[in-house]
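Fold it.
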Amino acid sequence: MIIAISGDSDFIKDINNSKFTGFVHSTFNRTFNIKCFENGNLYTIACRKLDNGPNTLIINVDNMKSKKIAVNDPVRVVKNFLFIGDKLTISIDKVNIWESILPTYPNNMEILKRNLVKMKEHINIHGVGGGIQKNVIPQNSFEAEVSNMLQKRTLLLYNELLNDRISSALPHAVSLLGLGPGLTPSGDDFLTGLFSIFNIKNSPFYPYRSFCEGVLKKAKTLTNDISYMTLKKAAIGKVRESIISLLNSLFVEDDKDLILSLNKLLNIGSSSGTDIALGIVFGMEANIRAGGKAC
């Protein structure tokens, strides 16, 4: 039996308040995903070195290889135990509840502006290319074309947001869905970061957060199941712990914490962390401009 260390509050509620059954949707070295029969959502079981996230349960193991979890293994819940076939039993009896809560938009714009400059400089030096960040030479013509499309489409979206043209920005955001390399494509990662900004309370974009739902309506058929679930949660302000930590760091004057939080995000996936970070930068700059304060 394996002990669950921490779990997303919505995941724990779904387990405790309903009959939870499903099957293993996909497996990786440090995670596997469950598809629930009752609501069709994906849920993630992750190793202890990963951060908390929406619909995620962190368990006390270093990797999933030894568990030999396979796609289509049945999943069921009995009381406080989550059974993955006959291969893994997870106890959620003493799990620490984690909740995705975004910070509130700050009153001090000067600190935010300075931190955004530092964040952009750090991404330019340490960010991973191959996605939105263009600092690698494409290996072939296909990669070059995808890279150009990502650059052009994010720029078009960025320009519309900077000029507070939310409705005009929508089709440009939709054009990023499923675009780019990675398990979660670069365009989707960028949108995940952007969605988090729309959902920050008291921000200029907060009244327009239905923009995220507008993009999501098109996402189901334009990207994969895992990426769609990430976007579905981000559209209502539910994002992983590393994103929340970075947003908190952007709003206070603490350079060490800012860089530490940013590095944790940049280390996600191959280019995913960098793409998310750039979505945050773009969204925050547009937010400031929309509030009548030039960045």
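The chain has a mean pLDDT of 93.
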